[in-house]
Amino acid sequence: MMRFEGWGRIVCGVVLLGAGLGQMAGAQATLTIDAAKPVAKVSPTLYGLMTEEINYSYEGGLYGELVRNRTFRSDWSGVDGWISTPYGSARGSAALDKTTGPSAAIPTSLKINVEQADANNAFALRNGGWWGVAVRANSTYTGSVYAKGDAAASLHVSLISNQTGKVLATTALPTVSGEWKQLSFSMKTGSDVKSSADNSIVLSVEHPGTLWIQQVSVFPPTYKDRANGNRPDLMEMMAEMHPAFLRMPGGNYLEGDTIKERFDWKKTIGPLVDRPGHRSPWNYQSTDGLGLLEFLNWCEDLKIQPVLAVYAGYSLKGEHVTAGPDLQPYVQDALDEIEYATGDVSTKWGAERAKDGHPAAFPLTYVEIGNEDWFDKSKSYDSRYTQFYKAIKAKYPQLQLISTANERGNEVKSVTPDLIDDHFYKRAEEFFADTHHYDKTDRKGPKIFVGEWATREGEPTTNFGAALGDAAWMTGMERNSDVVVIASYAPLFVNVNPQGMQWASNLIGYNALNSYGSPSYYAQVMFAKYLGTEVPTSELKGAGNKLFYSVTEDKAKGVIYLKLVNGSSTAQGLSISLDGVNAVKGSAKLVRLSAPTTAATNTISDPKRVVPVESTVTGVAKNFKRTVPGYSIDVLEIGIQ
Ligand code: AHR
Questions:
Q1: Cβ(57) to ligand 1 under 6 A?
Q2: What residue ranges define each of the domains in the chain, with the CATH number in brackets?
Q3: Is the pLDDT of residue 224 over 60?
């Protein structure tokens, strides 16, 4: 049992004023908290995740596939990413063949014609991966190749060091035959392999002959050993963010540039060979290996819910589908998609999900209809939303339906959306000035989903100044989380290779081998990890205009989480009084993110420059003093009784 002796008095007689003692504190401000008088409930789903196929977030990022352009189609000329590399006296050629492929969805292939080759002089094709191929010791690499052709010209697959030419793992594939067949393999690296991304995947042929190959896939070990799964480091980083949901599949990625290029979920399920893939509006091809079921599995692995965005008949370049009969097939697609996620196995699409390997239904609370429909110049959103709303509510009355139009334009009037999705991309100073954005929002109207937001300072990942803007903004969302019930920073991921980024300002950066969190990432982790269940009454007086705070309490745990954000370079003195509690524990946990300048940041080569530091603060009491250092984000976990 916890003991509370000594609480409510200054235990060691010294109030630690925290770091920043060297700075001049501004005039003393006062913060009064009355823990006995809650003013709002904190939404348990406040913090979540939002990504899409942007910045090589999935392919070349989270999705474990090591082979780039595994279906020979990413640059429209067919063989981008692949180099023919004959060894010694080997001779041959490789070219796209549009006349044969392993499936209707993938009707093309790479034809390899080997004129001369033997065991010491193989004809080979090299794939350099996504700016490298990460290879680690004692690891099993699994995959498959679809192939047909001359049996003699069977294939080997290897992982080879670019620097030394050393074979790090290799295996012979089953014999090729005259029919298209999926040839699966597995190969393991030895204990002497040094972790590196300076490697290639090499397919080689040791006999003359002709063969056709397609969908060349190599996976490293994945998170929770999921087949066709995700990179463990990135999944672990997301788990650390304590998210409650994943907004999926995007963003612009849901809409596509055109209707044809939308996220057409039915083409993203089932065997990989039956997925044609499609172009992301961020200008590269997706194989849709990370399709609808993989998104749902990702949620399951992180123990979070999907916020499922359904295509609503509007695409980025302005094409739209008129509400009425023309829109009906898209509405039906959305109903089918919800059934695929949530239906039991007796339903058509629930049975399809079971066939795809997941008989259990997924939980679902929120469905979002479209994305950023305030941009729709046709003004058709009200009628499109209403058609979706009525059909979905008729079948799934329990679902909460999100509108993507807001006060920026095209607000829905014909029905009342359950939630409205607001997006904010701002500078830190703009967020500092807008932390009261939701203070006056009508509590009787729709709830708010802040579906995309970020302070856009620093690239490819944001800097400490951005983290300050983010933290200030989060204090406002927490204070108003009775109405702001879900929120997700965007975008989450960027491949930091020079050609990898389409959107500057992202939360997590990575290359083929390593990953790191931006200061903004750590601010997110701190805010989501230390979050109470209620917002108590509080008032701040006399502080500078760049001091922001949030206070939430969790009575069951007996804690108050006090977050203090100082966006100025000047320290701020603060007298804190905690009313409405019987006792206060004399020592508190302090988690601090701070940096000497707003430009301070983390990078792939210096990933831990700005990270949270934990310490214990003594002298905490019903009335105590703190100095909030300049440029700092503090979370105090205070025990109460
Ligand atoms: O997050 C990047 C993009 O910003 C999203 O795809 C889009 O919804 C928004 O405009």
A1: no
A2: 10-45+532-640 (2.60.40.1180), 47-65+243-285+307-516 (3.20.20.80), 74-221 (2.60.120.260)
A3: yes
Atom of ligand 1 nearest to the CA of 52: 6
Q: Is the pLDDT at 25 greater than 90, yes or no?
A: no
252 CA distance to ligand 1 middle (Å):
6
Tell me the CA–centroid distance for residue 49 and ligand 1, in Å.
13
Q: Quick one: pLDDT band at residue 75, thresholds 50, 70, 90?
A: low
249 C-beta closer than 6 A to ligand 1: no
Average pLDDT over residues 82-87: 92
Tell me the backbone φ, ψ of residue 340, rounded to 5 degrees.
-60, -40
Given the CA of residue 454, which atom of ligand 1 is nearest to it? 1
- Rounded CA-CA distance 560/640 in Å is 7
Q: What is the reported pLDDT for 153?
A: 85
Q: How many CB atoms lie within 10 A of CB 258?
A: 14
Q: Whose CA is nearest to atom 9 of ligand 1?
A: 251
Best mutation site among 286, 317, 372, 505 for ligand 1 pocket (most ligand atoms within 8 Å of CB)? 372
Task: Give the Cα separation of 272 and 356 in Å (integer).
Answer: 11
d(CA 370, CA 405): 9
Cβ(209) – ligand 1 distance below 6 Å: no
Cα–Cα distance between 429 and 451 in angstroms, integer? 21
CA of 489 to the centre of ligand 1 (A): 11
Tell me the pLDDT band of 34, cut-offs 50, 70 and 90: very high
Q: Does residue 544 surpass a pLDDT of 50?
A: yes
**Given phi > 0 = left and psi -120 to 50 = alpha, else beta, which region is 631?**
left
For the cut 90, the answer to whether the pLDDT of residue 489 exceeds it is yes
SS3 assignment for 521-539? HHHHHHHHHCCCCEEEEEE
Residue type, 54: I
- Give the separation between CA 20 and CA 629, rounded to whole angstroms: 5
394 to 292, 307, 383: CA distances (angstroms): 23, 19, 17
